[in-house]
Amino acid sequence: MKFAVLDFETTGTQSADDIIQVGLAIIDHDYSISQVYASYVNPGRPIPPFITGLTGITDADVENGPSLEDMMVELVPLLNDVVLVGHNVAFDFNFLQNALDRCGYLPFSGRILDTMDFLKILFPSLSSYQLGFVAADFGIVHDRPHQADSDALVTAEVFLKCLDELNALPVLAVQRLSDLFAEEDSDLAWFFDGIREQKEREPVQELEGHTYYRQFALKVDDWTDIEPPRSEPGDNPLSGVSFDEYMEQVQERLRTSLSHYEARESQNQMIESVMTALSEEKHLLIEAGTGTGKSLGYMLPSLYHSVRNGEKVMISTHTINLQEQLRERDIPLLTRAVPFPFRAAVFKGRGHYLCLRKFEHKINRRDFVTPKEDLLTAAQMIVWLAQTETGDDEELNLGSRGGDFWETVASDSDSCLGRQCPWFRKCYYHRARQEAGTADVVVTNHSKLFTDVKASHQLLPAYEHLIIDEAHHLEEVAGKHLGMHMKYFTFVHALTRLFKDSKNGQLPVLRQQLMSSGHEKATEWAYVIDSLYPAMVEVKETWDKLSDMLFGMLPERSDAPPGETGQFSARLKPSDKPKGWTEAEQLENQIYVALGEIVRKGDKMLQEIKDEQDDYGSESLVTDITGLVKDLAAFRDSLRFFIKMDDLTTVYWLEASGQFKGKSLQFYAVPVDVSQQLKEMFFDKKKSVVLTSATLSVDKSFQYMIDQLGLQEAAEEGGLLTSLLPSPFNYREQALLVIPRDFPSVKGSVGDARFVDMLVDSLRSAAEVTQGRMLVLFTSYRMLKQVYEPLKEALASSKITVLGQGMDSGSRSKLTRRFQEAKASVLLGTSSFWEGVDIPGEALTCLAIVRLPFQPPNSPLLEAKSELLQEQKKNPFMKLSVPQAVIRFKQGFGRLVRTAKDRGVVIVYDTRVIESYYGKHFLYSLPGPKIEHMQTEQMVPRISEWLHTEAGS
């Protein structure tokens, strides 16, 4: 086979656009790149400026280039008898067919392959399939991105890398891939078939490195073979070793294994404080800023305590990201540093693990909803099974439709066959559970922590000591879990998986199996199934009607970008129900009654089938359907609880995005105050709970957190320690905070013309001095929108790009990556950019905070909490709004200095920090940057001077 890898640069993406450059790399039969053809093409019209900006190709470059006809004379012979390959090949193929047609050639009729498909299938864990990212990841030099010859050559090298990966797969995985695509009339199917034949002709491969089971190649053996972390149960590696001796050994090993290791004062203080809390059985609130190295700060004492005393320590993080970071970065480092073997296990919610039984069932039955995307996802997962040791969905880059696919194959308790399952010993969820059971330290997340409490502690291994990282989120997560949170699709997915139409869905499949089983009761059961269909169709219609009606009650918010859930939101008050609520109650009642009937009939029938049949074929199907029927019953009860609005200690609200209207509806019912429940569940029950985060204190005091989390009693009885660690960074020299004191103020979420003009002008001049590399944080999306276009225009001549959340891309990670890759850019973000975004080093020099991050006063939870404080004769603004905003402000400020070498400037345009009586709380809570205020016109010269004087000179 000979491959031709093609890439065009064009004047645009429409069929009327013209080719301006072509690159073609030929891969010969021996898999070497034998030639690269490149040529400019004169399109006979000017190149649009944005294309020049993207590709660097100017009118002057193409001026002396050949015409399309002349170029095609050279290109066409090269396409003889080749398989055409491209990255997103449909784009280049369309332009090729157009050009062939315009120049009087026959259309290209050969095979076509897309490197995007190959990358998705063969590298299922790559975080991006964008060519530049892939090249960097594979170590391929890509010196001129968006130039056709360079792109074609890089794509050819990427394609060869994919072929290597394909050849390295076990033959069983290749056969599975070939079977999967066999029914497709596609070039991908043809290609996999060819590779399979080739593989089957090779001599038998080494079978090591994989386990083969039920026609799958797996990376893991049985989890029942997992050994405990230390072989001799009686041998405690820490008996007679004091904590100080252990820490000396650890630090010695860190010094030898890390060339740049230096003990940090604040980290040592943290290690001491955490150890004290664990050994004296006290709770601890500890604020540790960026750069403290807090993961090791709590992991080292936890390991000592756990191994020394045989008491497991549980560690909980807010985000899965941090869990992954502990798995990828911190646990391997600890393995080198700690002088004895130990096990730290990561344990997530059950839905993160693949259920092998469901997956096998799905691909054997080809139960695909959107065939093209589902086939790719299934192929991705077949390859992934030969690579993964955890079966955790975070390892997969699932793409847009992959999430729906995952939901149908994720592990869940309602459809688990337990020991009856043929996959039981290979099961990823039970493996994770077994590892957690034998581990010294278990890393989980806040969500799982609360799911475990609600399941009467059946999910996590027993623990008495708990470390909560990112603890400033604990209260919010507690509310969501102790309350109720439900989405439009939660219900629809369960319904459509049971019944999509008379051929698709679990019930039609069961009906078919029953009828072919020849069981005497089969017809009777089939009759029951048939009677469920119309009821399900009706329930779905009523649900759609109710959702659209509720969406109609929601006003739009000003602080959320389009597409985000929460762009529309409304609090519902039991005492003051919105107009038309009676009708909503009637629709809910119809749903309640109908679902009751479906659940009753379904349960009765499923129980009968279970009692009568012992054939595995439908056992797994009956189990899955039973789980889905349980989901319907749970949904029915949740919806009733929400619509009734009986509980006065609960706040009810709805959120949705304008993009999908009623279909994006989310229902929340959250306890107004969770402090009492947190106290009862954790602080009264556990020997020691350590809460840490970079932002826990307000005004150097922990009182706000003590109130919110229910730690008051522990504090009064001497059971609570607190510690505010000094920052390891020298903020006075690393960060300058400037406030333009004559800046106009704003009322509401939209700026007037004068405010917007001054803001755009000030941001422009600041961005020019810092050469972009600037993050601007807004509290209102409307204001971001007001600034975006004018700022873009103002910076166009300086070659500084402006990226806006909700403008250029909805996804935070994509925007952050584009910002980091661009040489000079300004990123405008709202709420979700205030924390969790990590842009170390040069990429970020200036942070602009447009307004102090107060939550909008009509945010449902804030409003309800304020009402509660008023009843207690407390001032909600000072007790709640200010502390919340201060913590968010500190999070925002924390984006700037991420390492000891970073230097940067923060501009706060909100003059309330120096004018209002509460402003000092914001500035006093920061870790000591240099703070100056001045007239707006003095600001940029001062920033320029500060940036150009070297630190310390």
TrEMBL record:
Alphabetized UniProt keyword annotations: ATP-binding, Exonuclease, Helicase, Hydrolase, Nuclease, Nucleotide-binding
Keyword Cell division: no
EC numbers, comma separated: 3.1.-.-
Catalytic reaction annotation: ATP + H2O = ADP + phosphate + H(+)
Residues involved in ATP binding: 288-295
Domain of life: Bacteria
Family assignment from sequence similarity: Belongs to the helicase family. DinG subfamily. Type 2 sub-subfamily.
Record's protein name: 3'-5' exonuclease DinG
Gene field: dinG
